[in-house]
């Protein structure tokens, strides 16, 4: 099995085929960044249409058992995910409704502050706001995994403490290995682990150490360092791979409707546009290389399997209903 | 019209800096009967963009169908013309930026539809800042919050901080290039606590900062924000006005009734708990209804405030400023 805690971009039959051939068991897709409830419903509708048209290759999973069923029938399971809580439009009742529609992973905030809490690019992080607490309680109740990847450090710590279910940092790296606002401090990673959560190590070049982009061994060594911080039961994979994203898509992700100016997101003025994929991961299906790579840097087979899929499956079992 | 007559007219205009009537003739009749010639008419608190467009549409229809007593105003000269004709000028406003969400272009779009006043937050946090019911307030958000304030300054929307958190209030006043309003909020250091929690009342620091930058504080006869609630006398209300005048002077105090009549049962609960919580929130000590004090049962009694202020020793000219002149000056500087 191989589980990727986050991908984004355009999904279609070619991508499903490629992911199946690459040995992926389960992928969390991104259905929205800034969208409200209506556009989010559209995105869910599109995924359902795709699932019907490609039922031989994939399915939309609601439980860990669905993921195992996909594996047994040789298909890729997809978890419907959103990178912002704007899909709820501030309405607590919508949490259950979207869960009923199959949404399983929702990030509290995306880059900017919202009604739930602070975010990674804000000059100061508000911490978990009142609606944020309400949201987490409700997401715990209805079985949606709380994702804290783009969330500010203070809000992240508050959310880890507040949630009664394990939470995820689905796609980020350790800031002590690569300092970046998107990456997470050791304090956050230790708190995450103490509360049973999981971090998905990313391959996105803007937030990944250069040597981890150069070779699969370098990336697996980064994973080993992350395991030293968070422990073997709390580290997994969340590549942040994007399929066929254009500059226009990048602009939407970063600038949304909230600014008329240029926002570089995880990039910078020196590196404003799309960044090259890691040398060892030119195609997403190349991720299969980490099966051997993790063994080569010293993990046992059972440790490797936790990173590849076991840790995610444990969290999914604890959270999904 | 010359500037002199303009100013004289402005002085006679009675402004209610915040009311939230259900959109109907019957409700606006209460302001009309009270001699209010300009009302900051709250359109929505939690509305999304499309819900709010629908409500604005409804206000346009109500105003058109009842043009004998009201009209929508999109500018200070509109207000003056409508007031001069003996009608109520409705200035549309929001008590939250939920209709804008995080879309920078929507400030200009709503301004074009006549929305001239927006409160940044309503009790809770949003993309711009924090509300007065949040335990944590990190001020105006550096990403969207600062851009939103600059945009509201640019397109001519008056920023209202009545329900904002303390830090968000101070930072908004500081960051805004134009004066900012507290359309409806009473002084915390005078009143103590309110039926909406202590932090719903405005700090002395905020009141002073608001005035120092040219803003106006709308004091409210809403009993839930008065020291002795519905037992408060008119003289005691006027004492609160004088307390505030001592703090900031005659040019920075106005009236915002916070009178919100005509809504279906359960609406008040919706405003407070919105759609954001499943719990009963302890913040609201009682469920405030519409039972106002004997000396001001509705805004039809609005002019009782004028009489009370004059009886308390204010000159007719100073009373005019409080009853509307100060807010008209602020509208002129910001719309």
Structure description:
- The complex is a heterodimer of chains A (321) and B (335).
- Chain A is an alpha/beta fold and 321 residues long.
- Chain A has helices spanning 13-21, 37-53, 64-72, 93-100, 130-142, 153-162, 186-194, 210-214, 216-230, 247-255, 290-296, 301-319; strands spanning 3-4, 7-9, 26-30, 58-60, 76-82, 103-107, 145-147, 168-169, 198-201, 235-237, 241-243.
- Chain A has one domain (3-319): Alpha-Beta Barrel (TIM Barrel), CATH 3.20.20.140.
- In chain A, the strands form 3 sheets. In chain A, strands 1, 3, 4, 5, 6 and 7 form a 6-stranded parallel β-sheet that branches. Chain A has a 3-stranded parallel β-sheet with strand order 8-9-10. Chain A has a two-stranded parallel ribbon with strand order 2-11.
- The relative contact order of chain B is 0.15.
- Chain B has 335 residues and is an alpha/beta fold.
- Chain B has helices spanning 3-12, 25-33, 49-65, 76-84, 106-112, 144-155, 166-175, 188-191, 204-212, 234-248, 267-273, 303-311, 316-334, and strands at 15-19, 38-44, 70-72, 88-94, 115-119, 158-160, 181-182, 216-219, 253-255.
- In chain B, the strands form 2 sheets. In chain B, strands 1, 2, 3, 4, 5 and 6 form a 6-stranded parallel β-sheet that branches. Chain B has a 3-stranded parallel β-sheet with strand order 7-8-9.
- The A-B interface holds A 34, 36, 86, 89-93, 111-119, 121-131, 134, 138, 256-260 and B 46, 48, 98, 101-105, 124-127, 130, 133-139, 141-145, 147, 274-279.
